[in-house]
C-alpha cells in the first residue's frame, strides 16, 4: 500500500507531528486512500480543519479542468459542498458535521513536501475561499516539522447560512486513450527490451484457454472461472 499511495507515509508522520506539537485532534483519516475527498479531518485550536496531503503539488493538479481528474480545486469543492449541505451519506460531510458549530468558516489546509508553484496555489485558494467561504493554509513538511507557508483568514463577513452557498460539482475526467493493437504493444515491449517475452505470452495464451485483451498500455489475459470471464494477468508497459 505504501508504494501505491505515496502520500501514506507522509500523512502518517505529519499528522503524528501535528498531534504532538500543535494538539491537532484527528477524527477522520483516509490514509489508505479509499476515495474520500479530503485526507484528514479534525480540530485544530478548536476549529474544523480539513487537510489534503500531497507529496508534490505541481501546476497540473491545482486548478480544475474538465479533462483533468483529481485537481485540488475539485477536491475542495467535493469536500465543502456536501459539508455545507449536511449530506449524511457523504463520509467527509458526516465527519465534519459532527465537529463543526458553523460559527466560523472551516480551515482548508494543503500539506505537501514539495510545491512547484506556490503563487498559483495561493491564487486558486484566494479566489475560491471568497466564493466558498473558507479559510486556508499552506503547510510544507520539511522532513522534521511543518513550516507554514501561507495562513489566511477571509476578511469577508460570515454567511447567514452555509447551506445557501453554492459550491459546484467539479468533476474532471481524463479522456480515455484508444486501446492499441497487439502488434503495437509488442513494438512498445520491444523498445523496453521485453518484446520476446510478450510475444511468447501472446502466442502461448490460447493454449491455456486465455483470451487476450488490450489497452493503450496493457495486455490482459482472460479466461472463464466458474462460468464468468475474469482477468487473470495484466502486463503493463511503463510510459
Care to describe what's here?
This protein is of the alpha+beta class and 239 residues long. It folds into two domains: 7-164, Restriction Endonuclease (3-Layer(aba) Sandwich); 182-236, no CATH class. The chain contains six helices and nine strands. It has helices at 7-22, 72-84, 91-99, 118-132, 182-191, 195-204, and strands at residues 25-29, 40-44, 47-57, 107-115, 135-141, 146-152, 211-214, 218-225, 228-236. The strands form two sheets. It has a six-stranded mixed sheet with strand order 1-2-3-4-5-6. A three-stranded antiparallel sheet has the order 7-8-9, with no helix packed on it. A hairpin with a 4-residue loop joins β5 (135-141) and β6 (146-152).
Record the SSE blueprint:
Layout lengths: L6 H16 L2 E5 L10 E5 L2 E11 L14 H13 L6 H9 L7 E9 L2 H15 L2 E7 L4 E7 L29 H10 L3 H10 L6 E4 L3 E8 L2 E9 L3
Parallel strand pairs: 3-4, 4-5
Antiparallel strand pairs: 1-2, 2-3, 5-6, 7-8, 8-9
Helix pairs in contact: 2-3, 5-6
Amino acid at each position: 500500500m505504501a508504494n501505491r499511495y505515496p502520500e501514506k507515509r507522509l500523512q502518517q508522520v505529519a499528522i503524528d507531528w501535528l498531534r504532538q506539537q500543535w494538539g491537532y485532534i484527528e477524527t477522520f483519516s483516509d490514509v489508505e486512500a479509499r476515495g474520500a475527498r479530503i485526507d484528514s479531518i479534525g480540530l485544530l485550536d478548536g476549529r474544523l480543519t480539513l487537510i489534503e496531503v500531497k507529496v508534490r503539488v505541481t501546476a497540473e493538479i491545482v486548478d480544475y479542468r474538465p479533462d483533468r481528474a483529481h485537481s485540488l480545486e475539485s477536491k475542495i469543492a467535493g469536500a465543502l459542498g456536501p459539508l455545507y449541505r449536511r449530506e449524511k451519506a457523504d463520509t467527509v460531510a458526516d465527519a465534519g458535521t459532527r465537529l463543526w458549530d458553523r460559527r466560523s468558516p472551516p480551515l482548508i489546509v494543503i500539506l505537501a513536501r514539495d510545491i512547484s508553484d506556490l503563487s498559483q496555489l495561493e491564487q486558486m485558494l484566494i479566489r475560491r475561499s471568497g466564493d466558498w467561504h473558507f479559510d486556508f493554509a499552506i503547510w510544507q513538511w520539511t522532513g522534521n516539522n511543518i513550516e507554514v507557508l501561507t495562513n489566511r483568514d477571509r476578511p469577508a463577513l460570515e454567511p447567514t447560512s452555509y447551506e445557501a452557498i453554492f459550491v459546484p460539482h467539479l468533476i474532471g475526467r481524463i479522456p480515455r486513450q484508444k486501446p492499441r493493437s497487439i502488434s503495437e504493444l509488442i513494438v512498445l515491449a520491444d523498445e523496453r527490451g521485453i518484446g520476446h517475452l510478450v510475444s511468447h505470452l501472446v502466442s502461448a495464451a490460447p493454449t491455456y484457454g486465455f483470451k487476450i485483451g488490450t489497452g493503450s498500455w496493457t495486455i490482459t489475459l482472460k479466461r472463464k472461472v466458474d462460468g464468468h470471464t475474469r482477468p487473470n494477468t495484466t502486463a503493463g508497459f511503463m510510459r
